[in-house]
Automatic annotation (TrEMBL), chains A, B:
Species, as recorded: Piscinibacter terrae
Pfam families in alphabetical order: polyprenyl_synt
Claim: RNA-binding is one of the keywords in the record: no
Gene3D superfamilies on file: Farnesyl Diphosphate Synthase (1.10.600.10)
Protein name as it appears in the record: Polyprenyl synthetase family protein
Source superkingdom: Bacteria
Lineage: Bacteria, Pseudomonadati, Pseudomonadota, Betaproteobacteria, Burkholderiales
Length: 296, 296
């Protein structure tokens, strides 16, 4: 019953996110820029970050309009980072979400610009005219998103990643890299959703701990799937970390220990949720399971 | 007298902007990312956009802390766009502000990441904790900056620029490209400064018209300097537009008409300032002269 409700909620939210992105990512932007942006973000991806925003909003009974904007903004940041990450000067990847990558389809210059414009668009989406999203909440959401996307978060993690190719990393450095590269934006998704309501300080801290554990779990599972799944299941090139000689949780811990670590992190996320005392945290709880149990 | 005061004001504000950027662009960011970011934005550039923000703040007697943050944020956006624009997949330029470009110095991947992190940092700088900048003003500044940097502004203009290489453009399309590519961010600089105070609707419109005319004048003069100045005066590769077969105001209008057009736009900017009725608009007025009369 709960599981069926959850699947229904997921499908319905994914439709809502897709419609919102459809309306906010411009089709008519000049010189094909909008077309490249839409190609990079519409109709693809697991949308884990938007679902986390929306589930956290439900948990705190928050402002739905603000949460939908935050959900799309964080997905725009994630999608732009994939576009730039796939470019020849970074991972040089040709397949993403089962399609040719943006630079393969539209050229490198357009791919870089589309990514740049998507980052700006994320902050446009967070700062609408009118009073549906109070100005103080707009500022708070911009602050959370910018800090998780920037030098201390995602971009910083990518720089560590870049510098680590071919080098042995200990678990501590690997964890620091992933905290920033993937964890920061996933945790920010939870906190942006939480910010749309009025959680207590204790609830905020518990949701922060949930987001932190879930963010790391996500990356551990990603590393596991990179060696255990075929490219067609993943929708992106499998075995890529190994080919690029990148340290991963699997290379550092081994496959068995990586699986146990993912399970521990899930437990940690669930414990944090229980600690929050939030009555409506069911979707967050089931999302943590979904992140760990996924096969792509 | 006024001229000497102005030069003193400019020097003192440039020092203040440099100190603020020094403090906000991280030296210790991981894996050399902060070093690349600082290389790309510190100690260089004419800082036209920060000066416009600060002069507009003076004109409306606005919030100084907010204006300094907006000044640095808009310069971060400008500097990131130069880093990405100089990369091999775009203009492939090796010289900027008299130094090797960021990708020449640090590699393409780090240059792309540094640019990405600088865009995020702009929005971090605009959304500080505490109450020195009221939340509503933070949201307004983020909105103005995001819209001028994104698909409808700077990034959109660059996409048109990219698509126009080797094609004849009429003056209308050239103007549209520059309105977005350079004009949007220059105009936003004026409006962000204005937003730190409480201008009347009429003053806002007049400052918007001033920023619009000044933004176009800036680009017309850039096109003139590209053919009339040597690389060492410009601090970047001269004759680059011609080499890249890019349409410019000089190729479309001819040099003499381009010069007359720049003078007309300056007059238009000054007329808008006069219309604003703002008592403290002297720096804005002298900045319009400076933009048109510059030799680099």
């Amino acid at each position: 019953m709960k599981r069926a409700d959850f699947e229904h909620w997921v499908r319905s939210e994914l439709d809502a996110v897709e419609s919102a992105l459809e309306s906010w990512v411009p089709a008519d932007s000049p010189a094909g820029l909008g077309v490249a942006m839409r190609y990079g973000v519409l109709d693809g991806g697991k949308r884990v970050r938007p679902l986390l925003v929306l589930a956290a909003c439900e948990a705190v009974n928050g402002n739905r309009e603000a949460a939908m904007r935050a959900a799309c903004a964080v997905e725009l940041i994630h999608a732009y980072s994939l576009i730039h990450d796939d470019m020849p000067c970074m991972d040089n990847d040709v397949l993403r979400r089962g399609k040719p990558t943006v630079h393969v389809q539209f050229g490198e210059a357009q791919a870089m610009l589309a990514g740049d414009a998507m980052q700006a668009l994320a902050f446009e989406v967070l700062t609408p005219d009118g009073d549906a999203v109070p100005a103080a909440l707009q500022a708070r959401l911009c602050s959370l998103l910018a800090r998780s996307a920037g030098h201390a978060g995602m971009a910083g993690g990518q720089a560590i990643d870049l510098a680590s190719i071919g080098k042995p990393l200990d678990e501590h450095t690997l964890r620091d890299m992933h905290h920033r590269k993937t964890g920061a934006l996933l945790q920010a998704s939870v906190l942006m959703g939480a910010a749309t309501g009025i959680p207590t300080a204790g609830q905020w801290d518990a949701l922060s701990a949930y987001g932190d554990a879930l963010g790391l779990a996500f990356q551990v599972v990603d590393d596991i799937l990179d060696v255990t799944q075929a490219s067609e299941t993943l929708g992106k090139t499998a075995g890529k970390d190994q080919d690029n000689n990148k340290p991963t949780y699997v290379t550092v811990l081994g496959l068995g220990a990586a699986r146990r670590h993912a399970a521990e992190l899930r437990d940690k996320a669930q414990a944090a949720l229980a600690r929050s005392g939030l009555a409506n945290a069911a979707w967050l709880s089931l999302l943590a399971d979904k992140v760990v149990d996924r096969d792509n």
